[in-house]
């Protein structure tokens, strides 16, 4: 099912402004772009677009309240600066299983001052020498990288007793 149609179904007769949580995992994006999401989703706090075939975030709408974004298992390699512009309040970002290869790709996240948790598991960047130290240095606001802090303490399980809200 394509992403636009899936978003229509997920609305369940609500207006986009009434939706705080949206999951469109495993739907298909056309041309690797975000589709069907608009600036009308102004109350959206949690968005999950896992395995939808995204290769770009350029068409991401402005989502000022979005704080949790799941983008794992897509084809993203860049355009992450779009997140800083469109989703300035992100605290949790999962980019695992994407095509992120270099520190310069994640450098675009520096302006996400509230970003606390970043997941790059199964991305090529994780094979870089001193990967974890380099990312923590580049993004000092991040507390948890791939589920662990700088001292290798595991992040508290944010799923337990949490409906995905911020």
UniProtKB/TrEMBL annotation:
Residue span(s) of domain U2A'/phosphoprotein 32 family A C-terminal: 128-146
Spell out the Acidic residues composition-biased ranges: 148-166
Which is one Gene Ontology cellular component term of this protein? nucleus
Instruction: Recite the UniProt keywords alphabetically.
Output: Chaperone, Chromatin regulator, Cytoplasm, Leucine-rich repeat, Nucleus, Repeat
Give a Pfam family name: LRR_9
**In terms of domain of life, where is this protein from?**
Eukaryota
GO MF entry, a single one: histone binding
UniProt entry tagged with the keyword Nucleus = yes
- Output the InterPro entries linked to this UniProt entry: AN32 (IPR045081), Leu-rich_rpt (IPR001611), Leu-rich_rpt_typical-subtyp (IPR003591), LRR_dom_sf (IPR032675), U2A'_phosphoprotein32A_C (IPR003603)
Q: Where is this region: Disordered?
A: 147-166
Subcellular localization? Cytoplasm; Nucleus
Q: Note whether Repeat occurs among the keywords.
A: yes
Q: Which GO terms describe its biological process?
A: chromatin organization; regulation of apoptotic process
Task: Please give the function described in this protein's UniProt entry.
Answer: Multifunctional protein that is involved in the regulation of many processes. Histone chaperone that specifically mediates the genome-wide removal of histone H2A.Z/H2AZ1 from the nucleosome: removes H2A.Z/H2AZ1 from its normal sites of deposition, especially from enhancer and insulator regions. Not involved in deposition of H2A.Z/H2AZ1 in the nucleosome. May stabilize the evicted H2A.Z/H2AZ1-H2B dimer, thus shifting the equilibrium towards dissociation and the off-chromatin state. Inhibits activity of protein phosphatase 2A (PP2A). Does not inhibit protein phosphatase 1. May play a role in cerebellar development and synaptogenesis.
Q: Which family does it belong to?
A: Belongs to the ANP32 family.
Record PANTHER family: ACIDIC LEUCINE-RICH NUCLEAR PHOSPHOPROTEIN 32 (PTHR11375), ACIDIC LEUCINE-RICH NUCLEAR PHOSPHOPROTEIN 32 FAMILY MEMBER E (PTHR11375:SF5)
Q: Specify the protein name.
A: Acidic leucine-rich nuclear phosphoprotein 32 family member
Species whose genome carries this gene:
Mola mola (Ocean sunfish)
Taxonomy, top ranks, is: Eukaryota, Metazoa, Chordata, Craniata, Vertebrata
């Amino acid at each position: 099912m394509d992403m636009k149609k899936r978003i229509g179904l997920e609305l369940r007769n609500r207006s986009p402004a009434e939706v705080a949580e949206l999951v469109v995992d495993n739907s298909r994006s056309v041309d690797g772009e975000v589709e069907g999401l608009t600036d009308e989703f102004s109350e959206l706090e949690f968005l999950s677009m896992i395995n939808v075939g995204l290769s770009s975030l350029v068409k991401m709408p402005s989502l000022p309240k979005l704080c949790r974004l799941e983008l794992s298992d897509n084809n993203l390699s860049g355009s992450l600066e779009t997140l800083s512009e469109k989703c300035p309040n992100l605290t949790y970002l999962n980019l695992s299983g994407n095509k992120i290869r270099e520190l310069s790709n994640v450098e675009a996240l520096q302006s996400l001052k509230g970003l606390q948790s970043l997941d790059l598991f199964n991305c090529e960047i994780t094979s870089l020498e001193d990967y974890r130290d380099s990312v923590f240095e580049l993004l000092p606001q991040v507390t948890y990288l791939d589920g662990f802090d700088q001292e290798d303490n595991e992040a508290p399980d944010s799923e337990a007793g949490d409906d995905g809200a911020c």
